[in-house]
TrEMBL record:
Residues 367-442 form the AMP-binding enzyme C-terminal domain. The keyword Magnesium does not apply. Its cofactor is Mg(2+). Keywords: Ligase, Membrane, Transmembrane, Transmembrane helix. Belongs to the ATP-dependent AMP-binding enzyme family. This is Uncharacterized protein. InterPro entries: AMP-bd_C, AMP-bd_C_sf, AMP-binding_CS, AMP-dep_synth/lig_dom, ANL_N_sf. Pfam families: AMP-binding (PF00501), AMP-binding_C (PF13193). The chain crosses the membrane at residues 89-114, 246-268. GO terms for cellular component: peroxisome. The keyword Membrane applies. Residues 44-281 form the AMP-dependent synthetase/ligase domain. CDD domains: 4CL.
Length: 456
């Protein structure tokens, strides 16, 4: 950033005419210059007076900072004794838990690479990631062992009990046993540099097949610094983790970044509106008719509006935008069409983004299209969101069959269903002569959505 000081940069836009580049107008965040540094050491060395690091929302179990860092050292010692070294890949297959950060921080402290995956993925999808990333060790829970069936990877269980689903899994120990180990200062310590790989997380495949995204310790340290420098976080502040820790945002912000500020993270094993709203105090929601503003009853679809102490005051110097977003009683207009059932669960039923929203899960059409195109009888395909009252949206496929093919709707759905997680399954198929595309070859999804909904 220092070299930018000599450039003529427009203070309003951040644009530099000499190299046609836009520069950030924010003051640079200071980053550590020492080359030999891993993200675990960077976080653990931050001075603060925080006491509780994590709280399990379901059980109320607390994990203090002292307990956390001792556990990280203990697990790192065990991993070192098991032969885990710099550059080795370790798989973590688990829903959110207070033990998730322990595994990640322990692995990265050794210079090893953590790769995470969605526990809702199928065994086939997880198998593809395993084949690509080649982990030498895996951490998982007993319930997910079947998804690693057939793998020869040594497994560490995150829970003490071993279920009947273990089968022929090569279970070597449990995380709790590793946490009991006395940390060893004499364990093998490889030199870890900021440019070394820390994580290998896989993309959702919105533009094709899922790809492994490599992030270095420098990347993570920069993101952690952003979290703690851009927000006025006070020691002991509580944050609810409603996003998956196996995604980069959840991993950086909740599993690692907030630790550096001495904050407390309340962990939900998975996102449930009931659990989240029972954790957030003083939160209100209502569903209203978008046209009249009249409040609706249970199971009636309308716009979701929220009110609570955490809702913004408004937009700075923009009263028009504030008025269009907040009503006179402080209700935030979310722009999401939904209904709330008898149990208080909120179901989003209409989204404008291209990603298909099925029960809150994101389904990338491109991933399903790539899978469809691998079928020997399919010439072309497109996937769109189809509206549904119960799940919000589900994937619908428009398929062009190859000449002479008698492929059926059921055949298409079964082909995809065997290879993807349940929420990604195609639930409606229509056969067409061609897929509408623009001159550059991009699928005209809006045309297909209009065609599908015109028949409702």
């Amino acid at each position: 950033m220092a070299e930018n000081m000599s450039l003529a940069i427009d203070p309003r836009s951040g644009f530099c005419r000499s190299n046609s580049t836009f520069y950030s107008k924010r003051k640079p965040i200071p980053l550590p210059k020492n080359h030999s540094l891993d993200v675990t050491t960077f976080i653990s060395a931050r001075a603060h007076h925080g006491k509780v690091a994590f709280i399990d929302a379901a059980t109320g179990r607390h994990l203090t900072f002292s307990e956390l860092w001792r556990a990280v050292d203990s697990v790192a010692t065990c991993l070192s004794d098991m032969g885990i070294r710099k550059g080795h890949v370790v798989l973590l297959l688990s829903p959110n838990s207070i033990f998730f950060p322990i595994v990640c921080l322990s692995v990265m402290s050794l210079g090893a690479i953590i790769t995470t995956t969605n526990p809702l993925n199928t065994a086939n999808e997880i198998g593809k990631q395993v084949a690509d990333s080649k982990p030498v060790l895996a951490f998982t829970i007993p319930q997910l062992l079947p998804k690693l069936a057939g793998s020869t990877i040594p497994i560490v269980l995150l829970e003490d009990h071993v279920s009947s689903q273990a089968g022929e899994a090569k279970i070597v120990t449990t995380l709790h046993q590793m946490m009991k180990r006395e940390p060893s200062g004499s364990r093998v310590r490889d030199r870890v540099n900021q440019d070394d790989t820390a994580t290998l997380l896989y993309s959702s495949g919105t533009t094709g097949a899922s790809k492994g995204v490599v992030s270095s310790h420098r990347n993570l340290i920069a993101m952690v610094q952003t979290v703690i420098n851009r927000f006025s976080i006070e020691v002991g502040e509580k944050f609810i983790c409603t996003v998956p820790m196996f995604h980069i945002y959840g991993l950086v912000a909740f599993a690692t970044g907030l630790l550096a500020s001495g904050s407390t993270v309340i962990v939900l094993s998975k996102f449930e509106m009931h659990d989240m709203l029972s954790t957030i105090e003083n939160m209100e929601a209502k569903v209203v008719d978008p046209d009249s503003g009249k409040a609706l009853n249970v199971n009636q679809t309308g716009e979701l509006r929220l009110r609570g102490p955490s809702v913004m005051k408004g937009y700075f110097s923009n009263p028009e935008a504030t008025t269009s977003t907040l009503d006179s009683d402080g209700w935030l207009r979310t722009g999401d069409l939904c209904y709330i059932d008898e149990d208080g669960f909120v179901f989003i039923v209409d989204r404008l983004k291209e990603l298909i929203k099925y029960k809150g899960y994101q389904v990338p059409p491109a991933e399903l299209e790539a899978l469809l195109l691998s079928h020997p009888e399919i010439l072309d395909a497109a996937v769109i969101p189809f509206p549904d009252r119960e799940v919000g949206q589900f994937p619908m496929a428009y398929v062009v069959r190859k000449p002479g093919s008698n492929l059926s709707e059921t055949g298409v759905m079964d082909f995809v269903g065997r290879q993807v997680a349940p929420y990604k399954r195609i639930r409606k198929v229509a056969f067409v002569a061609s897929i509408p595309k623009n001159p550059s070859g991009k699928i005209l999804r809006k045309d297909l959505i209009k065609l599908a909904t015109s028949k409702l």
